TrEMBL record:
It comes from Leptospira langatensis. Residues 147-169 are annotated as: Disordered. Keywords: Membrane, Transmembrane, Transmembrane helix. This is DUF4899 domain-containing protein. The chain crosses the membrane at residues 313-335. Residues 155-165 have a biased composition (Acidic residues). The keyword Transmembrane helix applies.
Length: 336
């Protein structure tokens, strides 16, 4: 049953070194432990998200994000990746338990840490400045805009065309659309990358549902780490063993490609690629190549040991035959 009060969670992430800036607004239900809905956008110009969070509401942030997307000023690929990551985290019991606990305790540094962990999966290791604002509000006030417009003056919102929900919908958690509709709501979502095979691989834009391919799990989110642990994929040297996967759905948009895969029956993942030229290794039933120094080394050592043993045996036989031959010659000379 939905809670009568929810948390409005807003944040800005600014990394001036890489010129990457993120604006996020979300509604967190503390009872169901889920991010009910959210809006996020990534830009390369900090002025686009220059809005004081303390005077803003979830609706205000949603309007700003939608306006940026409507005008085509967002970093599309990064925005898509962040949407995907926040959807995954919003379904993760472990992530949500930590987030709600830290919000209740008002441990801002730990909230920033969780947010930065998601950002690092999309942008690499960065140390942005993260500004937070969260508050407990009545559910009926979720769609209320702030009373002050001074926060939006730098965005020229008075002159901006109104963005309707059809043009830039808020993404609701639990009702995926597009290619995400192929991932069951109760599935475990993992992060992964393709294992490539430049010579004999399948071009990524030619992958079809049912194709068997080889992937490698990556990422530091709780869901992926949990699957790596359960499947015992981590080697002694820290590397992750590749695993076979089945293509569930694909979507091609020019040079952009999205692919949904599954491992087993309830582990799913989605990946976004910007190049058609990469070729994905097909799974042929053979075990993926083991890391250097592990199984392959053991196999080589075993083969070498076997060959050495065979050589030793052959030498022993030859020596024995030589001794027998000398003895027979000696007997022949003695008798005759």
């Amino acid at each position: 049953m939905p809670s009568e009060q929810v948390y409005s969670l807003l944040f800005q992430s600014r990394d001036s070194t890489s010129s990457l800036y993120i604006l996020f607004g979300g509604i967190v239900d503390p009872v169901s432990s889920r991010i009910e809905k959210f809006e996020v956008v990534a830009v390369g110009n900090s002025e686009l998200i220059n809005i004081p969070l303390s005077g803003a509401t979830y609706k205000d942030i949603t309007n700003v994000c939608q306006k940026i997307k409507y005008e085509g000023k967002q970093l599309k690929n990064l925005t898509n990746k962040l949407q995907e990551l926040f959807q995954t985290s919003g379904r993760s019991d472990d992530f949500m338990e930590q987030l709600i606990h830290y919000i209740n305790k008002r441990e801002d540094d730990k909230i920033r840490y969780l947010i930065n962990q998601i950002g690092n999966q999309a942008m690499g290791n960065t140390k942005p400045d993260i500004t937070l604002w969260y508050s407990l509000i009545d559910r009926g006030k979720i769609d209320e805009a702030g009373s002050s417009k001074s926060s939006f003056e730098t965005l020229d919102t008075e002159e901006a065309p109104e963005v309707t929900p059809d043009e830039a919908p808020v993404i609701p958690i639990g009702t995926p659309t597009g290619i995400d509709a192929n991932i069951p709501a109760n599935a475990t979502r993992i992060q992964f990358k393709f294992i490539l095979s430049p010579v004999s691989g399948i071009p990524v834009n030619q992958l079809r549902p049912g194709d068997q391919i080889v992937v490698q799990l990556i990422g530091s989110d709780p869901a992926t780490l949990g699957i790596i642990d359960v499947m015992k994929l981590k080697m002694e040297d820290g590397s992750i063993k590749p695993v076979p996967a089945t293509v569930v759905a694909t979507e091609n948009k020019g040079v952009e490609n999205e692919t949904v895969i599954k491992i087993g029956n309830d582990i799913f993942g989605k990946i976004y690629e910007e190049e058609n030229s990469i070729k994905v290794r097909p799974y042929t039933g053979d075990k993926p190549a083991a890391p250097r120094g592990s199984a392959s080394s053991a196999s080589s050592a075993s083969s070498a040991s076997l060959e050495a043993g065979e050589s030793s045996l052959l030498l022993t036989v030859l020596i024995a035959l030589g001794v027998v031959g000398i003895g027979m010659v000696a007997i022949f000379v003695f008798l005759f």
